[in-house]
Amino acid sequence: MDSPIDEALARLRAEFPARFEQATTEQALRDENAKILGKKGELTAILKDMGKAPPEARKAIGEKVNLVKQEVEKTFHACLAKLAKAKRDAELNARPFDLTLPGREVAPLGHKHPISIVREEVVEIFRGMGFAVHDGPDVDFEENNFTKLGFPPDHPATDMQDSFWTTSGHLLRTHTSNIQVRAMTTQAPPMAFIAPGSVFRRDDDATHSPMFHQLEAFLIDENVSLAHLKGVLAEFAERMYGPGTPVRLRPSYFPFVEPGAEVDVACVFCKKADGTRAGCNMCKHTGWIEILGCGMIHPVVFEACGIDPEKWTGFALGMGLERIAILRYGIPNIKLMFESDPRFLAQF
Ligand code: DAH
Predict the structure, then answer these.
(1) Is the N end or the C end of the chain the one with fewer CB atoms within 10 Å?
(2) What is the bridge-based pairing of β-strands 191-200 and 132-133?
């Protein structure tokens, strides 16, 4: 007579193939398999019952259980493969993929902002002349932004520029000229740097934005003269706006240069076919648009930064990148550059 274990094994062996066949999904198949071979599975339970059998019968039972286990595993894997094949066949027999259909439109790519384009161009032009690129913080000490550049504490320029001060007495830099001080107080001449960056002023109207972009350039060496500055300016204007672009220097005042000048480029907005300028609102009917301030670095700046003004001379210039872009592309309104309007940005 068969033992209860034999009977249980025989029943399981007869039943399990049909149970596997009925599973129509991989998950159902795995669940069924776990019901038999899992920790609390039926075959596992039978194996545990083996302890109740007489010791001399255990080996034979163990062998039988193992045989059934192997059968279950084999069938399980065969069913698994069958399900996978059925799934793949269904995919292959489904409606075919039509390779001749037109593709979906790719979302339009972003564009570089005109300020970024112009900044990269200006940086490349100056790098070509041997200037290295310097970086600096947007928030700085008063002495780097004003004092060491020759602005006395009550100088009208500090007032005029109307700066953003932090509660700790720092300020958002009002110009990139702070990088001149940072370079001169940490490095010994000779040096030639440019420094692009954001600057901040309490200004907000049709032609001013409270945040805008500048690029500073300065060069310090022995025997640097105004002629070197003019040469660099001419090279810059030619590379930026094309050969023969008219440029002019007007004497001007900045506390950190002597002599100081402003540089104008011929207005692109009212240029006529014959090259003459009619005058327009953009250039306030002068035919010229200012693009930068410049000059020979003032001896008081050298002294404040610990550089011997008897030995070293240098020039500096600072330009507004919005202005450069306006002239480069004929953009009529500075505000357009801060509105993130894709119809505007897509034009560059
Ligand atoms: N920092 C000046 C401004 O923001 C521009 C400037 C003028 C920079 C003359 C210079 C310079 O380096 O020499 O208006």
Answers:
(1) N
(2) parallel
